Amino acid sequence: MRILIVEDEPLLRAQLVQAVTAAGHVAQEAADGLQAHFLGEVEDFDAVVLDLGLPQLDGLSVLRRWRAAGRAMPVLILTARSSWQEKVAGIDAGADDYLAKPFHTEELLARLRALLRRASSHASAQWQCGPIWLDTRQARTLVDGQPLQLTSHEFMLLAQLMQRKGEVLTRTGLSEHLYPGGSERDSNTIEVFIARLRRKLPAGCIETVRGLGYRLAEPAGTGA
């Protein structure tokens, strides 16, 4: 998943990026409201962690502008205050959840997982497609009950396919979910990771839709 981290305090921002990356996501960061607003307008993110006390443009204004423009990605707001008025203002502006500082990183990650599940209509942290099980909480994968060893990029790619199983995902779209916005995105690299996954997964799980991209399908004779 691609997560946008918006926090003006450098140390906390670095800690959040590290935690989100270690959890198997791709993290992109912004240090002020104007940069955050721009990234949220032009990039696709699966979720956003948004501090309210931002320079140049405050977090509530950023969120209101995103929602007014039809940007519907889940947003978890961070607030330095625990007043109920600020929480209500955040929810009214379109936030999906909030977390008051100081907080434990584990709680932030748990709240992000919940937002991602709701956004993708997955009620559980464990996703299934035929014999494949993917646990987003523990970042592990099973095939027919046996652990499957995947690299971080292979896991993120499989998670994206699992999240939207049955849908055709383009090479460009998959690439954007594997690399931060500032990194070079080479869609040809996706072909390499797809080939690696196919060698590790049951035959027929990943289908190529010529000219469009790839989709995850259940092998014949299996059911979710």
TrEMBL record:
<dbReference type="InterPro" id="IPR001867">
    <property type="entry name" value="OmpR/PhoB-type_DNA-bd"/>
</dbReference>
<dbReference type="GO" id="GO:0006355">
    <property type="term" value="P:regulation of DNA-templated transcription"/>
</dbReference>
<dbReference type="Pfam" id="PF00072">
    <property type="entry name" value="Response_reg"/>
</dbReference>
<feature type="domain" description="OmpR/PhoB-type">
    <location>
        <begin position="124"/>
        <end position="218"/>
    </location>
</feature>
<dbReference type="GO" id="GO:0000156">
    <property type="term" value="F:phosphorelay response regulator activity"/>
</dbReference>
<keyword id="KW-0804">Transcription</keyword>
<dbReference type="GO" id="GO:0032993">
    <property type="term" value="C:protein-DNA complex"/>
</dbReference>
<protein>
    <submittedName>
        <fullName>DNA-binding response regulator</fullName>
    </submittedName>
</protein>
<feature type="DNA-binding region" description="OmpR/PhoB-type">
    <location>
        <begin position="124"/>
        <end position="218"/>
    </location>
</feature>
<dbReference type="GO" id="GO:0005829">
    <property type="term" value="C:cytosol"/>
</dbReference>
<keyword id="KW-0902">Two-component regulatory system</keyword>
<dbReference type="InterPro" id="IPR011006">
    <property type="entry name" value="CheY-like_superfamily"/>
</dbReference>
<dbReference type="GO" id="GO:0000976">
    <property type="term" value="F:transcription cis-regulatory region binding"/>
</dbReference>
<keyword id="KW-0238">DNA-binding</keyword>
<dbReference type="InterPro" id="IPR001789">
    <property type="entry name" value="Sig_transdc_resp-reg_receiver"/>
</dbReference>
<dbReference type="Pfam" id="PF00486">
    <property type="entry name" value="Trans_reg_C"/>
</dbReference>
<dbReference type="InterPro" id="IPR039420">
    <property type="entry name" value="WalR-like"/>
</dbReference>
<feature type="domain" description="Response regulatory">
    <location>
        <begin position="2"/>
        <end position="116"/>
    </location>
</feature>
<dbReference type="InterPro" id="IPR036388">
    <property type="entry name" value="WH-like_DNA-bd_sf"/>
</dbReference>
<keyword id="KW-0805">Transcription regulation</keyword>
<keyword id="KW-0597">Phosphoprotein</keyword>
<feature type="modified residue" description="4-aspartylphosphate">
    <location>
        <position position="51"/>
    </location>
</feature>
